Amino acid sequence: MKAIVSVKRVVDYNVRIQVKPDGSGVVTDGVKHSMNPFDEIAMEEAVRLKEKGKVTEIIAVTLGGAKNEETLRTALAFGATKAIHIKEEGEIQPLTAARALAAVFKKEGASLFIAGKQAIDDDANQTGQMVAALLDLPQATFAGKVDAGLETLEVDLPAVITADLRLNEPRYLKLPDIMKAKRIPIEAVTLTDLGVTAAPMVMTTKTTPPPTRSKGIMVKTTDELVAALKAKGLA
Amino acid sequence: MSKVLIVAEHAEGKLNAGVAKVVAAATPIGSEVHVLVLAADGASVAAEAAKLAGVTKVLVADSAAHTSPIAANLAPSVVELAAGYSHVLFPGTTFGKDVAPRVAAKLGVPQVSDVMAVHSATFFDKPIYAGNAITTVETPAGTIVATVRLASFTSVAATGAAAIEKVSVATVAATHTRYKGLEAQKSARPDLQSAAKVVSGGRALGSSENFKVIFDFADKIGAGVGASRAAVDSGYVPNDMQVGQTGKIIAPSLYFAIGISGAIQHLAGIKDAKVIVAINKDADAPIFEVADIGLVGDLFTVVPELQSKM
Q: For residue B68, is it within any domain?
């Protein structure tokens, strides 16, 4: 059984996000990037399924410019058996990504699509569900949890799964695996090759920093605390 | 002319409290705001939705296919009924996030996730990078599908009396997905996402047993109970209590952060709280930088003392 895992290169989790002073976006040049953490969880899950013999091939797919190749190298170090780079410069939004990923899924004859529930840059939380819709497949989203507790769904394959935080703990990549991954060829395709038309885009007109909260007052005793709450009409 | 369709979330015959906030987001968009209830028997949910101020009509589509909240079954019904609407809105909960993209993809339109402000029918603000930046976006032509960030809107009052209309859909339940049930954390306490007051505990609680201090205090003041990611990861309390970037994003009038250091990921979940009170024994904890009222002290003495005075 073939599994497709979609992986995205994003600004690293630990980077403090800076909004450009002209409001044109956030600073991404010269900033550390890495694989979207939720996609790492998706990769880990696919590798575990392969180790259990449920999955035979793991195809890692990414969309974007040349730099995204490093994310595919990470996926190969995790244990992907094949990597496909959908080369496209410029911004790619979820519906276009989903159309391309659905095309790859069909072309490869895969049975399972796994992705992180969302990327930590645009926080859209859309692509997996859109892939499922376009292929008319069942979807199990946020594998790990829902708001109200733990919901259990049973789906038939082929299916789409999106991974949440607590599905697993991704492994540390070992140096020999990272080195070996550098030598595996990556297949490059374009949206045109896949017969995909880009979807209409949501345009960003302005990016601003969030409003900041200012430091309040410090109290020394619970009596002072109760008094401060009373002053605000909260006690 | 804008006409808005809101897809209602509900469980056990009750409307989700978040829907009243989605109505608040929809009101400035269009003069017609309809709520769609997809259920096996949506009568009680529809009656609640009809009371929300600003709602002009409630549509109830009763179908066996809507018995469980399965996106693959609900999305085709929404798509079928979306014709004639300029906007289709969902609450930004796991329910809305599950179904909305499936609807957008079928309609061939992009989706706006987590609308936090409505400037016009086509201009919205939404957070990116976990709320570390806010973007203003303009939607292209076509139906606008969006999820609404609940923490950014205040619920409309239950003073309306909209008409309820029965509609039918062609949806047949897919056989590929089976709903096996929800292992919910049953609680008599106010729901974390809609509570006016929330008390959260962090790693400093030290154990599951010690969390009783938090629960007791919350019960005294009628608050919902949350936790930091550290407390959840340590196994003190279940996942669904986590407040923060990867947990729940909340906007209570009063928030108590107790024994919580204030990591960026936690702060992302409480930015919209009206008043933040921090209690921590470490005077240098980052939580004090954002707290409206701070008290340095040992939570195990401070909290019971505070409880007796409130």
A: yes
A130 sits in which H/E element = helix A127-135
Spatial contact of A59 and A6, defined as CB atoms under 8 Å apart: no
Contacts of A36 in chain B (CB under 8 A): none
Residue A149, pLDDT score: 64
- What ipTM goes with this model? 0.93
Average pLDDT of chain B, as a whole number: 94
> Taking the model in full, what pTM does it have?
0.90
Over residues A120-161, the pLDDT tens digits come to 999 999 999 999 999 999 999 987 655 566 778 889 999 999
Residue of A nearest to B68 (CA): A153
Q: Give B 196-235 residues with CB within 8 A of chain A.
A: none
Domain that holds residue B248: 197-309
Number of domains in chain A: 1
Whether residues B58 and B124 fall in one domain: yes
List the CATH number of the domain containing A160: 3.40.50.620
CA-wise closest residue to B256 among B308, B194, B299, B208: B299
Nearest Cα neighbor of B193 from B229, B150, B156, B236 is: B150
pLDDT score of B265: 83
Cβ contacts of A136 on chain B, cutoff 8 Å: 72
Cα–Cα distance for residue pair A86/B278, rounded to 1 Å: 48
